[in-house]
Design goal:
The chain has 376 residues and is of the alpha+beta class. The chain is built from seven helices and 25 strands. Strands 3, 4, 7, 11, 16, 17, 18, 19 and 20 form a nine-stranded antiparallel β-sheet that branches. Strands 5, 6, 8, 9 and 10 form a five-stranded antiparallel β-sheet that branches. Strand 19 and strand 20 form a beta hairpin. Helix 3 crosses helix 5. The two termini are 26 Å apart.
Length: 376
């Protein structure tokens, strides 16, 4: 059985489309088979909600009197990049308030505060030129007062990732995966498994440049492949990558987003980040897509990597493989021992996003967008 994008879009307009979440698709295929699931379902919704460090926001603050060309700028004390035109700023999620050592407050928290309607203090310094004579400004502003505020995330939605452990260091390792306890006393992971968008379309058949997505509580788009995109990673027979593979460059209007799905994150001993909620709707075009979207946690492998080596995934030691069924159970077996698992990704948040996107499609407020070009 085959469907076209146009047929599915027409069903959405008529209100007759059949939409289920990736979780529900997994259960349906297990019960009725992939062929029957394909016959019944038009669209499968996915979701993920986890820290995505390669995120940030592009702001245009508007001009000051006298006019000022930013040379340096800080937002609530957090450094923003000012090497753009006049009053444009880029604030990275991991930029930290000027302190000695890892900070508890940074770009991710400023972004959350902006979407929550909070007032932000801008401190800016300028060059002092003939056309931009101003040398400093210290206004306050809220999101609605900005002409432009664009969430601009260079690397989101990793297609699978490492499970991090500390096998050999005698001290706690403070990493972007959270604290890793010595002697394999915990294992940290960050992926929504069977709900994760790129694990439900592992060959990027329906996700590409121009795809419309749920982003941070509003609407966004896939604008390019993400940095460190690696589509040629090793895969299982079912097409699932066995470790970090594809990534996406995501963009959206910050003014339509919500602090419920954009949350500043403090990672003790490491720094700050931004938890981003992303959802994608995958059209079930044929049986292959039905098979992809029915993937279960137990079918998704993940490498267990020792972060006490120089760097994970590079010279870090791969100690073995596990899967997301085991990870979500709360413990894995490693070297004959039970190791407690900890998730940085919110599965409950991912489920909520997939359900919300399902409801939006059913009421016709979210339409699928066929990609204009592939990402790989």
């Amino acid at each position: 059985m085959k469907r076209t994008w146009e047929e599915i879009d027409e069903k959405i307009q008529r209100g007759s489309v059949v939409v289920i979440t990736a979780e529900e698709m997994t259960d349906l295929a297990a019960c009725r088979g992939v062929r029957e699931a394909c016959r019944r379902v038009d669209v499968v919704t996915t979701g993920t909600f986890s820290p995505m460090c390669s995120s940030g926001v592009l702001l245009n603050t508007g001009h000051h009197t006298p006019r000022l060309n930013y040379r340096q700028a800080w937002l609530d004390g957090v450094p923003a990049y000012a090497g753009l035109a006049a009053v444009d700023l880029y604030l990275g999620a991991t930029s930290q308030r000027d302190e000695t050592g890892p900070s508890e407050y940074g770009g991710g928290h400023v972004i959350e505060k902006l979407v929550a309607g909070g007032s932000i203090h801008l401190r800016a310094e300028g060059h002092g030129t003939d056309c931009y004579p101003g040398r400093s400004a210290e206004p306050r502003f809220i999101l609605d007062e900005l002409k432009d505020a664009i969430l601009l995330n260079p690397r989101n939605c990793y297609q699978n990732y490492n499970v991090a452990v500390n096998a050999y260091s005698e001290k706690i390792l403070h990493t972007y995966m959270g604290p890793l306890l010595p002697d394999l006393r915990n294992a940290a992971y960050s992926c929504a498994g069977q709900l994760s968008p790129l694990l439900n379309d592992p060959e990027y058949r329906t996700i590409g440049i121009g795809s419309r997505i749920f982003l941070g509580g509003g609407e966004g788009y896939v604008t390019f492949r993400g940095t460190q995109h690696c589509p040629d990673a090793e895969r299982t027979r079912g097409g699932v990558p066995t470790g970090g593979a594809g990534t996406l460059f995501l963009t959206g209007d910050l003014k339509g987003m919500s602090p419920e799905y954009l949350r500043g994150v403090s990672i003790r001993g490491y720094g700050v980040s931004l938890a981003v909620g992303v959802g994608m709707a995958i059209p079930v075009l044929d049986e292959e897509m039905a098979r992809f979207t029915s993937v279960s946690d137990g079918e998704i492998p993940a490498p267990v990597v020792d972060y006490s080596a120089d760097y994970p995934g590079m010279s870090g030691r791969v100690l073995g493989m596990t899967d997301y069924g085991e990870l979500r159970s709360g413990e894995i077996i490693l070297r004959g021992r039970k190791v407690r698992t900890v998730s940085l990704s919110s599965y409950a948040g991912a489920r909520k996003i997939s359900e919300k996107l399902k409801a939006m499609i059913n009421r016709g407020s979210f339409r699928l967008a066929k990609p204009s070009a592939p990402i790989s």
